[in-house]
Amino acid sequence: MATITHQNKDEGTRKKKESIVDLSRFIDKKIRVKFQGGREAAGILKGYDALLNLVLDNCVEYLRDPENPGTVGDDT
């Protein structure tokens, strides 16, 4: 699990925070990600950081259905 240490010059070192999501078990596996705002992408997870920035290989973005914005179509 990822561990982050925050340092503030006024307070010294704060306690460590752990990520609530353990993505290490998904490395080199195909995942599908749903973003805020409704966008979706699928690909092979190659890496990530403490801020949950993702590196996806062979990524495909799925577009919303123009007739029904609440659903994601099969178009890429």
Automatic annotation (TrEMBL):
SUPFAM superfamilies: Sm-like ribonucleoproteins
Cross-referenced InterPro entries: Lsm7 (IPR017132), Lsm7/SmG-like (IPR044641), LSM_dom_sf (IPR010920), Sm (IPR047575), Sm_dom_euk/arc (IPR001163)
A GO molecular-function descriptor: RNA binding
Location of the Sm domain: 18-76
Keyword Nucleotide-binding: no
Transmembrane segments: none
Superkingdom per UniProt: Eukaryota
Protein name as annotated: LSM7 U6 small nuclear RNA and mRNA degradation associated
